Here is the input.
Amino acid sequence: TGLVADYVILPDDGSNVASWTYIETNMQSFASGYRAQGLVQMLETETETADIISDKPSGLTSKCGVFYGGFVYANKAKVPASVVYAGKQALQDIQDNGIPSSIASNKVVDGAISCYPVTFSREDANKLNEKGINCGVTHFGIRTWGGYCSTYDFSGSTDKDKIFLNTARMVEHIKRQFIARWHEIIDNGFTRNVKDMILNKEQSELN
Here is the structure.
């Protein structure tokens, strides 16, 4: 179980090979084959928060996370924020025994010395987060910042299950696990005994 990228849009600047290797290696280490989350990397064409927000892709769903910019390492390598987030989320999922309940936000990016194309302050990063855009930030080190669904808007009326990526992933995880456990039994008839069996088993799983 965990986060699997449906697609990642990376800047076409010739630096993508290492990034793709990184994301594929980390994905294979924990993914069980279902697609629970898409990652969208915005092209780094702006540095002002208002312009970045206006350039945010449209038509995305709550099963998608939008990321801006990325991280610069000591060897001058640049890795998109979506790729770093995916790797950190993979490690977090492993630590949580495959349950996608945690979020890879506010995690120190080891080896990173700055962000690109701009290193955001926490205040500016929060402005992006309020519009469902996740990024890097300088705050007691270089960190991932934000774990919001692409549809999140602080000033709007967002459904509770469409605010945080880990909530959307957890709902998807529970749904898929439920279907995998019970579809064959339910196909043979939904009796009172089946209902009681499901309730007891699901209560045990949640505990």
Strands lie at 38-42, 64-68, 70-73, 78-80, 112-116, 133-138, 142-145. The helical segments are 16-28, 49-54, 81-95, 122-129, 165-187, 192-206.
